Please model this.
Amino acid sequence: MSAHYSQPLVAYSVDHGELLEIPLPLAELRKQDRVGFAWFSDTVIVYAKTDDDIACRNVLEAVGWLLFATMCTRTRIRAGIAYGKFFVDPANEIHIGSALVEAYELEQAQQWSGAALTVNAARRIPKRNTSGERYQWWVCDYPIPLKPDSDVENSGYAVDWTQAIHEKMELLWSLKQPEPSPEDYRERKSVCEKWNNTVKFHREVCTSCFPSNKERDPLKVL
Model:
């Protein structure tokens, strides 16, 4: 995802305001206090500025909104959410630490457009006891689809981007056809599998588009 296209989407995912067409300077985007972020080629890094619950929740919410904002566009993103050692020096664009490596490895291992948490990140989230906690943390139990050759541990915890406010959305393969064609499966099998897994998550988790899903998780809806 190019920085030119992702900057308006990241700004939207942080404050949920108007989606700007002109990218803001990185310094302007960093003035908000909710999350920190940086760009490396086609990679966007979103991180918590402190280790308190609100800061961690802000990261999950921002990633959830970013996923939601791209679902009906030509841009598809994956994200790995890690918890651990991470050092950042925004002024000098320095970002290092084991958490960054773990997040990258998990992102690469996923076979969909979505976001999964590492085992340590999943442990960082308090056990759910009320629907309010479920809604605030933007996560859900889900069997994360991983590539066959992946050796990362599956936490079974995903960012629930379907919690973004919406009435109805339909995930289409393209503007010309709703699903991949047999030729698409022959020529782009991996891409088709990622699309199918994304649609499956939406169909099985979203309560706005599929109200019957409310019965599957009594802690999901306020």
Notes: The chain has one domain: 3-165.
